[in-house]
């Protein structure tokens, strides 16, 4: 699962990313469309909720000022309990929200459960929708229909220590092939540092290596998926990533057990010269031991000047099928997910906007965001859009595969063959 807020929480408290089990049941569309009363909204809670809550409260104030007789009740739910909460909501309309925030990797599962309404027609009547970044909008779609409006997006890039690079007379890598030799050189010169901090369970750090090599998680044929993680290209990408976890770069004893959160935290603590981190890690890095001593560049691709495809994480806002306030839900969703409040959420939380014009605006005013926007513009990738992904995620198929390779418990070929078999079982079950 890749929910950006969970990543932010985990970066601070070391929480492991948790998979989402499949949600089974769903509601029917409501025939009612009440124009007053209480609109119920679920949003994810935060380690520090205050900045998010302040923006949401301002949106509520604006919304209720133009909708007489309407109140908005916001519940901030825990990310880790979301599967149970949504399952119960989809089974009982009385407990369901009208509008909800959810992670984009959960979308296919929730749509299969019948939980969220098709918003395709609503987007056609919303002028701002024309500026939603197409690749990001795709993360809110299932079989061509839009069920979630992207509220923010999260991508990863290469953080590096400017003081270390200056001291050693180094430059950031121009290709992925340069990354391991560079990290090895740094570790040799400064053995107290990891050349780069990555992890044996860091799925979203590994995927750009697979995609850059021409590999993929799965291929679709006629709406059916088959794993391709065991292709020659995918194996080459995984092998290149695994090279980073070795005594001469990032020792397996320290790095093999790590997911993305622990990998970034090592950089935050001043233990590593580089890491693959998200735009959402900014506040943690700036509050850590490397404050004022780091910069970010896009993770390079196979050739100089290219950018490795990044996973497009992020959260969506959707409308439940059971809502009895469909028009109010649409109006509030379009207000909160619109440009005005995406700008405010960027200022308050650092959330990258999903509108192309707002992305250009914020990157023009903030050097930090430029490599992330460049990564978005270069093209992002996503997990297979199928309810089966919830099973694959819950079974930790990919983290287990990576760890088997970096600990040398299995060869790349054997680990990917096993992962492909488990993925295909999920795809066909």
Automatic annotation (TrEMBL):
Keywords: Signal, Transport. Pfam families: SBP_bac_8 (PF13416). Residues 1-21 form the signal peptide. It comes from the Bacteria. SUPFAM superfamilies: Periplasmic binding protein-like II. The keyword Protein biosynthesis does not apply. Gene3D superfamilies: Periplasmic binding protein-like II (3.40.190.10). InterPro entries: SBP. GO terms for biological process: maltodextrin transmembrane transport; maltose transport. GO terms for molecular function: maltose binding. One of its GO terms (cellular component) is ATP-binding cassette (ABC) transporter complex, substrate-binding subunit-containing. PANTHER family: MALTOSE-BINDING PERIPLASMIC PROTEIN (PTHR30061), MALTOSE_MALTODEXTRIN-BINDING PERIPLASMIC PROTEIN (PTHR30061:SF50). Belongs to the bacterial solute-binding protein 1 family. This is N,N'-diacetylchitobiose transport system substrate-binding protein. It comes from Crossiella cryophila. The lineage of its organism: Bacteria, Bacillati, Actinomycetota, Actinomycetes, Pseudonocardiales.
């Amino acid at each position: 699962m890749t929910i950006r807020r969970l990543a932010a929480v985990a970066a601070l408290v070391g929480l492991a990313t948790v998979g989402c089990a499949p949600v089974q049941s769903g509601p029917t569309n409501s025939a009612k469309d009440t124009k007053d009363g209480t609109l119920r909204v679920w949003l994810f809670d935060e380690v520090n909720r205050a900045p998010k809550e302040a923006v949401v409260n301002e949106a509520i104030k604006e919304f209720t000022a133009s909708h007489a007789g309407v109140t908005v009740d916001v519940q901030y739910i825990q990310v880790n309990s979301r599967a149970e909460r949504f399952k119960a909501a989809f089974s009982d309309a009385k407990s369901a929200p009208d509008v909800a925030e959810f992670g984009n990797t959960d979308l296919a599962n929730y749509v299969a459960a019948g939980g969220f309404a098709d918003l395709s027609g609503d987007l056609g009547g919303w002028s701002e929708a024309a500026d939603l970044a197409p690749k990001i909008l795709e993360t809110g779609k299932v079989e061509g229909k839009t069920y979630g409006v992207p509220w923010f997006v999260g991508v990863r890039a290469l953080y590096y220590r400017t003081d270390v690079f200056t001291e050693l007379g180094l430059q950031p890598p121009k290709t992925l092939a340069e990354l391991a030799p560079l990290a090895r050189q740094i570790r040799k010169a400064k053995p107290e540092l990891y050349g780069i901090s990555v992890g044996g369970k860091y799925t979203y750090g590994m995927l750009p290596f697979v995609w850059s090599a021409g590999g993929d998680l799965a291929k679709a044929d006629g709406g059916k998926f088959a794993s391709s993680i065991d292709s020659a290209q995918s194996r080459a990408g995984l092998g290149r990533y695994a090279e980073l976890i070795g005594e001469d770069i990032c020792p397996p004893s320290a790095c093999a057990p790590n997911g993305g959160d622990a990998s970034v935290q090592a950089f935050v603590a001043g233990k590593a010269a580089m890491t693959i981190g998200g735009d959402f890690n900014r506040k943690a890095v700036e509050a850590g031991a490397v404050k004022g001593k780091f910069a970010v560049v896009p993770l390079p691709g196979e050739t100089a000047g290219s950018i490795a495809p990044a996973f497009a994480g992020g959260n969506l806002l959707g409308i439940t099928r059971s809502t009895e306030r469909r028009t109010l839900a649409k109006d509030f969703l379009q207000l909160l997910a619109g440009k005005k409040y995406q700008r405010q959420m960027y200022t308050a939380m650092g959330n990258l906007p999903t509108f192309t014009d707002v992305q250009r605006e914020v990157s023009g005013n903030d050097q930090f965001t430029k490599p992330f926007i460049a990564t978005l513009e270069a093209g992002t990738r996503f997990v297979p859009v199928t309810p089966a992904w919830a099973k694959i995620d819950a079974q930790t198929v990919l983290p287990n595969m990576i760890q088997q390779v970096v600990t040398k418990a299995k060869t790349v070929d054997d680990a990917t063959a096993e992962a492909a078999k488990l993925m295909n079982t999920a795809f066909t079950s």
